[in-house]
Amino acid sequence: MNQKRDNPPYQIKGVEALLGTSDSTDAASSLVSIHKIVLPQQQPRRYFDPTAMQELVESVKQLGILQPLLVRPTGGNKYELVAGERRYRAASSLGLTEVPVVIRELTDMEALQIALLENLQREDLNAIEETEGILQLLAMKLNSAPESVIALLGAAAHPERAGVDNVIHSSDWQIVSDIFAIVGKYTPESFRTNRLPLLSLPDDVIGALRKGRIEYTKARAIARVKDSSERSQLLEEAIALDLSLTQIKQRIADLKAQNTGEATAPDRSLKSRVDVALQRVKKSKVWDDPKKQKKLEKLLAELEALVGEGLEK
After folding, report:
1. Phi, psi of 45 (to 5 degrees)
2. CA 174 to chain centre
3. Which of 111, 120, 119, 45 is nearest to 79 (CA)?
4. What are φ and ψ of residue 181, in 5° steps?
C-alpha cells in the first residue's frame, strides 16, 4: 500500500483547459518505489543540460523532491511517468528507492498532452524544443499532421486570399486560439513568423539551439550564411565570444564582402580566429598537462616575438 505524505500539491497550469475536464491536478501525493516507474515511449524532451541536471541533483540531495512526479497506472503494479522526468533522473542518480508521486488515470493521448504542456512551462526551455512542443500539441488537438497545422497558420495570416474568413471562424481555429491562450507565450501569428522558421534552420544551428548554446535571434542570423564551413566557424565564434546580434551581422557583412571581392575591415576573420583560439585555450585542460604547457610557452614566445617585430616596424 502506498504511503501518503504532505508534499505540495502537483499542478501543471492549464491541464483542465487542455483536456476539457474539471478535475483538478491538486492531489495528495504518495510514496512509491522508483523501480515501479517506467518511462513513456514518447518523450517530448530530448536534451538535458548537464550543468542544470547536476544542480537539480544537489538540490534533491539536500532538500529531497519538493514537487511530486505525475504518473499513471499501467497495470502489473507499475506506473508510467507523465511529468517530472528531470526529478526522476535526479532521484535515480542518487539511488533513491522511493519518490513522491501523484497518480492519475489518463489515456495515452492525455498523458502525452500533459507531458508536452509541462515541458512548455519549463524555465530552461530552448527555442527549438518550445517550437516543436507547441506544434506537436496543436497537431494532436487538431488530429492533423504538423504540416497541416503550419498550412492552417499560413492561411489565416493572409486575409486577402479567398476562404480565409472561413478558416478564422472554423472550429479548428478555435482550438488553435485556445492552445495559444493556454500556453500563454505567443499569438498564432507571432508563432508563425518568429518560431516556425527555426525548424528550417541548418542542422548545426538547430543543434546549438537545442543545447541552449545560442539565442534564437542570433541563430536565425547565422543561418543566412550559406557556406557550411563559414557558417560553422561563425557559429562557434559567436558562442565562444558571446557576440552580440550586431556583431554577428557585421561578421556576416564582412564574409559577404570577402566573397564578392569588396574591401573589408583588415584581417577581421583572422583576428576573430585569434579571439576564439584564446577563449578555447583559457577553457581547455592544457593547464593540467605539463607537456602541453611547454608547447604553449613556445607558441606564446613566438607570438610575442611576432608582435614585437610588428611594433618595431
Report:
1. -90, 130
2. 27
3. 111
4. -65, -40
| Stated pTM of the model | 0.65
Can you name the residues that pair with 29 across neighbouring β-strands?
5
Structural domains of the chain, ranges and CATH numbers in brackets: 3-120 (3.90.1530.10), 127-199 (no CATH), 224-306 (no CATH)
Tens digits of residue pLDDT in 101-133: 999 998 888 888 888 888 787 766 788 888 988
CA distance linking residue 117 with residue 140, whole number of Å: 12
- DSSP 8-state secondary structure symbol assigned to residue 1: -
Q: What is the distance between the alpha carbons of residues 34 and 100, in angstroms, rounded to a whole number? A: 9
Banded pLDDT at 208 (limits 50, 70, 90) = very high
Phi, psi (degrees; rounded to nearest 5) at 221: -70, -45
Which residues neighbour 261 within 8 Å (Cβ) at sequence distance 6 or greater? none
What does the alpha-carbon distance between residue 60 and residue 297 come to, in Å, rounded to a whole number?
44
Sign of CA dihedral 283, 250, 189, 198: negative
| H-only helix segments in the chain | 15-19, 50-63, 85-93, 108-120, 127-142, 146-156, 164-168, 171-183, 188-194, 203-210, 216-222, 228-241, 245-259, 268-283, 290-312
Own/partner long-range contacts of 281-289 (Cβ < 8 Å, ≥24 apart): none
Q: Helix (H, G, I), strand (E, B), or coil: what is residue 73? A: strand
Which residues have CB under 8 Å from 278's CB, separation 6+?
A: none
